[in-house]
Write a structure and sequence with these properties.
The protein has 10 helices and no strands. By secondary structure, it is an all-alpha fold. The protein has one domain (about 1-270).
Length: about 270
């Protein structure tokens, strides 16, 4: 858990910097340093919000703490249900911040954020159920605890192909596009923006953590395979999301969410039988 709290923002910042570097290279633009996100965050933490509204500082810090704790519990081997609950609370704080924002962009951003959180929360819940059923099928005793799932010596993805496809589809085709990238509301400036951005880094590592446990089978080989799959998802997301039109982004979320839910439902029905 402590390792996640310390290393996740470093890895998340490097992934963000690498993503920006690769996008610039693919589009023929001037490439910034991979370490640029860390420089930006340091500058933001030194800045105060343009408008000192205490509740938005609470929202920013609340989102940061909620995501950090949920990921810490996940990598600490605790129950996935508690992880999902804390992650959902962090997402709800995001929605509250948008609801109370005075930005002209907030209504549109609120719709996108609610759709994104709703779809991912549903997929998370079904993934947790699938992992519980797999442990029950293989050991006779189901469990939501990450450490129990990892210690059984089997690869859950072999029995959860539908859930795996649905989960990867969300990660690749529906990544979080934070409203903070578009709004110019004063309350989301300075250190408030920095807390939200670092929270997104924590969240990104948590999402890839789910992919890791779906492929991990208790051996070094499966651990290497899990890391490779995570990297492939990262690169595939980079290639596929860049040309997508944001005009139809909300509709696109609905389609991907529906397809993912169908795949997951079929997988769970087969597994229960």
């Amino acid at each position: 858990m402590i390792g996640y709290l310390l290393l996740a923002p470093l890895l998340g910042g490097l992934l963000t910097g690498l993503e920006g570097w690769l996008k610039a290279r693919l589009q023929g633009r001037r490439r910034s340093s991979i370490l640029q996100p860390f420089q930006d965050i340091i500058l933001l933490f030194k800045m105060s919000p343009i408008q000192a509204r205490g509740k938005f500082t609470f929202y920013a810090v609340g989102f940061f703490i909620g995501v950090a704790l949920s990921g810490g519990l996940f990598f600490g081997g605790e129950s996935i249900t508690l992880v999902i609950l804390l992650w959902a609370v962090a997402g709800f704080i995001n929605i509250l911040a948008l609801y109370n924002s005075q930005s002209s962009y907030s209504k549109y951003a609120l719709e996108k954020e609610a759709i994104w959180i709703g779809i991912h929360l549903t997929i998370f819940m079904f993934t947790a159920i699938g992992l519980f059923l797999v442990t029950a099928h293989n050991t006779g005793e189901g469990s939501f605890h990450v450490y129990y799932i990892l210690s059984q010596g089997y690869v859950p993805a072999c029995q959860l192909p539908g859930i795996l496809i649905g989960f990867i589809a969300l990660l690749v085709l529906a990544p979080r596009r934070c409203f903070l990238e578009h709004t110019v509301a004063a309350e989301y400036s300075g250190r408030n923006l920095a807390f939200f951005e670092v929270g997104r880094w924590y969240e990104n590592i948590l999402l890839f953590g789910f992919v890791f446990i779906l492929h991990y089978g208790g051996t070094v080989l499966t651990a290497v395979i899990s890391v490779i799959v995570c990297l492939l998802i990262f690169l595939l997301r980079l290639l596929l999301t860049s040309p997508l039109s944001k005009k139809y982004e909300a509709t696109f979320y609905y389609v991907i969410g529906l397809i993912s839910l169908i795949m997951i439902f079929i997988n769970l029905v087969v597994l229960v039988k």
